[in-house]
TrEMBL record, chain A:
Pfam families xrefs: Oxidored_q3 (PF00499)
Compartments in which it is found: Cell membrane
Organism listed in the record: Thermostaphylospora chromogena
Name this polypeptide is given: NADH-quinone oxidoreductase subunit J
UniProt GO MF annotations: NADH dehydrogenase (ubiquinone) activity; quinone binding
Reaction catalysed by this enzyme: a quinone + NADH + 5 H(+)(in) = a quinol + NAD(+) + 4 H(+)(out)
Classification of source organism: Bacteria, Bacillati, Actinomycetota, Actinomycetes, Streptosporangiales
Keywords: Cell membrane, Membrane, NAD, Quinone, Transmembrane, Transmembrane helix
TrEMBL record, chain B:
Protein name: NADH-quinone oxidoreductase subunit K
A Pfam family hit: Oxidored_q2
Catalytic reactions on record: a quinone + NADH + 5 H(+)(in) = a quinol + NAD(+) + 4 H(+)(out)
Biased composition, class Basic and acidic residues, residue ranges: 149-161
InterPro entries: NADH_UbQ_OxRdtase_chain4L/K, NUOK/Mnh_C1-like
An example Gene Ontology CC term for this record: plasma membrane
Region (Disordered): 98-161
Family: Belongs to the complex I subunit 4L family.
UniProt-listed HAMAP family: NDH1_NuoK (MF_01456)
Keyword Transport: yes
Organism: Thermostaphylospora chromogena
Origin superkingdom: Bacteria
Length: 178, 161
């Protein structure tokens, strides 16, 4: 893994594409947490998740990329938009989306980013992965899920069912506690 | 591909998520920031799975599991947000203080929070507050609502005896 690490100064095409997608993801994530319009935050989240799906594709994780598009961009964003609608959020810009501790939050976030980036760059400077297609295809992931990860998979399906029932019980108004 | 690139992107995304969780007041925006943090973890998992060439594909399978758990989390979270909104008519995290101390000390830091603190302190922390707040919001609501919203509101009014 560590032999013959290519230089950082001559990035390959995959790395350039990944860095561009990563820049899109980070920029749209910044807009998600700083925009003054709720609906725009949800839509910038779509851009962020789409760019992340592109990152997974570049990393040869095809199946994860499509699942990301289906579940995150399709389901979670729709759910968040429903939540925004049902709580009667204003469509236009609203001034009170940020709390008073913005500066403290920015300080904590910058400190977290500095520590994590320093640590990661220091720790994995020589790590290099050759990307070969097919590692994350649906066939490989499906075989792995149903051969080695069957029990967690089934437990997760039960968890999803429980979450579904819980969400229904919580959001219906005609169910009374005894 | 150098593993540093996905790791740095993931670290930046996680920090942005931390900022969003700490700085936002709207509960739905906080949920979005939590999703950002989960996605940062997913990117790390995929990158290290590709790097280590895991034969069991642990990283990518775990990414799928995290995606599923995030979907369940956001479903239950939004149901809770809707229940809070039904009772309080607002979902601002700063104002949901029923579990706080009954007489909060005036906060020592300056801007923004102290302007609201006297009103919050003079407010009795009882169940009547929510009722009064809901009543006030209900009285103010039928000014400019659409028919669909009005029908929904009346249906909700019938459902709550």
């Amino acid at each position: 893994m560590n032999e013959a690490v290519p230089s950082y100064l001559s990035p390959s095409g995959q790395e350039i594409v990944f860095l561009l997608l990563g820049a899109v993801a980070v920029g749209s994530a910044l807009l998600v947490v700083t925009t003054r319009r709720l609906v725009h935050a949800a839509l910038w989240l779509v851009v962020c998740f789409g760019a992340l799906a592109g990152c997974y594709l570049v990393l040869t994780a095809e199946f994860v990329a499509w699942v990301q598009v289906l579940i995150y961009v399709g389901a979670v964003i729709a759910l968040l938009l429903f939540g925004i609608m049902l709580t009667r959020a204003p469509i236009g810009p609203s001034t009170d989306l940020d709390s008073g501790n913005r500066l403290v939050a920015a300080g904590v976030a910058v400190a977290t980013a500095a520590i994590l980036v320093t640590l990661v760059v220091d720790g994995f400077r020589t790590a290099y992965a050759d990307l070969s297609p097919g590692q994350g295809s649906a066939e490989a992931i499906g075989g792995s899920v149903f051969r080695n990860w069957v029990l967690p998979f089934e437990a997760l399906s039960v968890l999803l069912l429980a979450a579904l029932i819980g969400a229904i019980v919580l959001s219906r108004t005609d169910i009374r506690g005894r | 591909m150098h593993i540093v690139y996905p790791a740095v992107v993931a670290a930046l995304l996680f920090s942005i998520g931390v900022y969003g969780v700490l700085a936002r007041r709207n509960t739905i925006l906080v949920l979005m920031s939590v999703e950002l943090m989960l996605n940062a973890v997913n990117l790390n998992l995929v990158a290290f799975d590709v790097w280590l060439r895991d034969r069991l594909h642990s990283g990518q399978v775990l990414t799928l599991f995290v995606i599923v758990i995030a979907a369940a989390e956001v479903g239950v979270g939004l149901a809770i947000v809707l229940a809070v909104f039904r009772n309080r008519r607002m979902i601002d995290l700063d104002d949901l203080r029923d579990l706080a101390d009954p007489a909060p000390l005036p906060s020592p830091d300056g801007d923004g929070t102290t302007a609201r603190d006297p009103a919050r302190a003079s407010e009795p922390e009882t169940a009547g507050t929510a009722e009064a707040r809901r009543g006030g919001a209900d009285a103010a609501r039928p000014a400019g609502v659409s028919p669909a919203e009005h029908a929904k509101a009346t249906r909700r009014g019938e459902a709550i005896p």
